[in-house]
């Protein structure tokens, strides 16, 4: 609550009256509020802030008998002050931050926005500091800055998702040449750790550190997610543009209108992930294999938990991830991205009897969006207002067995172009020097 108040521009030490959570559970007695009404009157009429203007914060100094000792003390300091995430951090020294800042054409003091729920001012330097702490490199900074810009777009509703109990986490999809240039994974293991493609983990972790340290999203304090966002490095990966079937547009082009070779990010929120067995087990025909796999995906989507209500009209119910080998086989059978979305739209619907049985009718009836409320007239009930809201992404390793469903919790899907400095090629040369050859021919 303190973070939320601060994010609205009010004094963080504003008067607050607390009650036990039991008072607000179903069937509870709220008469205790009436008994304490004078506390409300006093808070509204007599409160005065005790805060004074904050002084400039000096640079921290950490000393140790050895470099290892100093590094350990720096990490202890970060954890003690709740700046860390439980994993080792690189100290954000002036030298390291200045090096990271070489990755952007923007000035370090350029303000990106206020990060919710606390409302801390986020600058390009803020991004560089977090990326330095996460072990990132300067060539990753353009993607992180674009992701933060998208995250802070007013229509993402990030101020609510950051603080809500629904365990939302951001997903960053990258399109354009920059994905390969900075070694961002689009193939085998694209959602997990990859020493040959380390960019996603660093960028995602840096974004998470900004969420915590600037936005105040500490578990149980600024972020009330019962179970958290599943990952301390979020999800940052690239679409596998090399294996997109001919005639299929990239996600950046289809969803946001960017030209095919444009470097861009697309940011949306999810709160769950499910691996789906896509291919058949016996000697199905290609047509049977494709159709059965589509039904299995649609069946996973047909889950009445209602986080999709947040983006019912303009957001997304989730993202379907399919490997390039599967996408190309389906394209040969006449499947396109629009045809797939129409299939999911029709076959993920939920019978109204199930909606009523699990209490979903009430959630839909109290939604603020009239389009969402009006959807109750349909039986079976569609999990989103139109097929176009489904995201279809080509990514993952060249294996036909599995697809992936990222369950959406996202009012909008925001796209941003990625801006790189004129010296970007120099940074890529340095990456080859430091990390070895990054071309596909060099992969183990």
Overview of the structural elements:
The protein is α+β, with helices and mostly antiparallel strands. It is 36% helix and 13% strand. The protein contains 18 helices and 9 strands. The strands form 2 sheets. Strands 3, 4, 5, 6, 7, 8 and 9 form a 7-stranded mixed β-sheet that branches. A two-stranded antiparallel ribbon has the order 1-2. β1 (111-115) and β2 (120-123) form a beta hairpin. α5 packs across α6 (124-133), α6 (124-133) packs across α7 and α6 (124-133) crosses α10. The radius of gyration is 24 Å and the shape is flat. The model has no long low-confidence stretch (mean pLDDT 92).
Task: Please outline what is shown here.
With 444 residues, the chain is of the alpha+beta class. The chain has helices spanning 2-7, 31-35, 37-46, 67-80, 94-100, 124-133, 141-151, 158-163, 178-181, 199-213, 251-256, 286-301, 324-332, 337-347, 352-357, 360-365, 370-374, 424-435; strands at 111-115, 120-123, 169-175, 235-238, 264-277, 316-322, 391-394, 402-410, 414-417.
């Amino acid at each position: 609550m303190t973070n939320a108040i601060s994010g609205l521009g009010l004094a963080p030490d504003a008067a607050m009256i607390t009650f036990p959570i039991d008072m607000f559970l179903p069937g509870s007695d709220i008469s205790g509020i009436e008994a304490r009404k004078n506390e409300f009157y006093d808070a509204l009429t007599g409160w005065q802030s005790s805060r004074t203007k904050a002084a400039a914060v000096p640079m921290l100094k950490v000393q140790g008998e050895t470099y290892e000792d100093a590094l350990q003390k720096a990490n202890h300091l970060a954890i003690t002050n709740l700046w860390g995430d439980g994993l080792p951090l690189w100290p954000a020294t002036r030298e390291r931050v200045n090096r990271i800042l070489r990755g952007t054409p923007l000035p370090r003091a350029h303000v990106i926005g206020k990060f919710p729920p606390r409302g801390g001012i986020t600058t390009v330097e803020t991004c560089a500091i977090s990326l330095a702490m996460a072990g990132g490199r300067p060539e990753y900074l353009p993607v992180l800055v674009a992701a933060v810009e998208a995250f802070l777009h007013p229509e993402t509703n990030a101020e609510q998702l950051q603080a809500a109990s629904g365990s939302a986490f951001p997903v960053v999809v990258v399109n354009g040449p920059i994905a390969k240039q900075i070694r961002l994974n689009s193939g085998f293991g694209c959602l997990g750790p990859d020493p040959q493609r380390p960019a996603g983990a660093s960028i995602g972790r840096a974004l998470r550190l900004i969420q915590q340290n600037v936005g105040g999203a500490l578990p149980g304090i600024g972020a009330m997610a019962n179970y958290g966002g599943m990952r301390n490095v979020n999800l940052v990966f690239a679409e596998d543009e090399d294996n997109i079937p001919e005639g299929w547009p990239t996600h950046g082009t289809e969803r946001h209108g960017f030209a095919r070779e444009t470097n861009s990010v697309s940011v949306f929120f999810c709160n769950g992930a499910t691996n789906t067995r896509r291919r058949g087990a016996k000697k199905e025909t290609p047509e049977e294999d494709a159709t059965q796999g589509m039904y299995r995906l649609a069946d996973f989507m047909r889950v009445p938990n209602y986080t999709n209500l947040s983006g019912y009209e303009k957001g997304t119910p989730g993202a379907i991830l399919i490997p390039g080998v599967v996408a190309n086989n389906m394209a040969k059978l006449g499947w396109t991205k629009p045809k797939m979305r129409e299939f999911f739209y029709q076959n993920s619907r939920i019978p109204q009897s199930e909606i009523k049985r699990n209490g979903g009718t009430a959630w839909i009836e109290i939604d603020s969006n009239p389009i969402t409320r009006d959807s109750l007239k349909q039986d079976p009930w569609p999990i989103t207002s139109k097929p176009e809201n489904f995201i279809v992404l080509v990514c993952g390793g060249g294996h036909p067995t599995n697809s992936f469903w990222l369950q959406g919790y996202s009012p909008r899907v925001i796209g941003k172009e990625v801006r790189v400095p004129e010296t970007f090629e120099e940074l890529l040369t340095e990456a080859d020097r430091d990390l070895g050859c990054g071309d596909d021919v060099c992969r183990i």
